[in-house]
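Usage

Read records sequentially. Each one opens with the input sequence:
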Amino acid sequence: MDKVRIGIIGCGGMARYHGRMFTKFVPDAEIVALSEPNEANLARFIKEVFTDPQDEPATFSDYRRMLEEVELDGVVIVSPHNQHYQQAVDAIDHGCHVLVEKPMVINTEDALALIRHAEKNSKVVSVAFPGPFSQEFQYIRRLVESGELGEISLVSGHCCQQWIQNVAGTWRTDPVQSGGGNLYDSGAHMFNAMLYLSGLAVTDVFAYVNNKDQQVDIEAAVTLRFSNGALGTATVSGDSTYFEQGIYLQGTKGTIKTSIYGGSLDYWSGGSKVKYPCVPETPLLQQNFVDCILGRAETPSPALLGLRQARLMDAIYESARTSRPVSVVAD
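and closes with the structure output:
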């Protein structure tokens, strides 16, 4: 194989980000096909990602034609949330590995079905959460797994931003296409970080949400209990006057504060800030995807994380609807 052949479904802002990462930093991959029904999005993607007209890929308005007509090794799915499941299944049916934007799918049933389908066809499904690919998250996981932080007793996450101001009138505020509001969009990063870093399962939740006259949730406050008895809190605001976010992980021997995306790390133990060793760099998630296709690596963000998040989100929304605590289905 000369280069891994990549197709991209959806050519909006996040797709352009993935496109730039592949073309600039992943030399053993090439983007050979794009699928996007909006011609303006397609033109902008090509203009921003490709500097040489000879490198421009084949383009399609229907992703199914792309899968039928172009030989691909991997597909990157960057479409509205409710389209992820079927597009991933179709890509696997055409022999492709899948890198899918968060959330992987919008319900537990689809998550289970996608995992079974990928396993049956021996294909990788990697979820494009940046956190698990970051050097900070991987270092924190080693601290937790080694016992250096002690037993985890509290996990807290928050994300405040001007979400509704930026997405009003788009598919993200349509509950059919998005599956939910800010909790399912930016909140997905926060919940993934809480699950990934703690290494714990959530056993039950209680949630309040505020739609603020929108069709989807804008603000939410969630309390969580984890499998070891640890407690958790999660808050999101999609109508904030500023952007601020973070994860707080407290153990009996140490405490961590980090970003929901990775990229920062503060570590305290015994009342003092710890000077931790230089954390080795980790491959970009796009490079990791190519490495997975070539059999050189495994993804730190597998479909199992997408399943756990789907189960958690199903429970959170049920709790918000019923005003009762709801148990989260275990693996």
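Summary fields computed downstream for this record:
- The chain has two domains: 4-127, 131-271+303-327.
- The CA atoms of residues 20 and 49 lie 5 Å apart.
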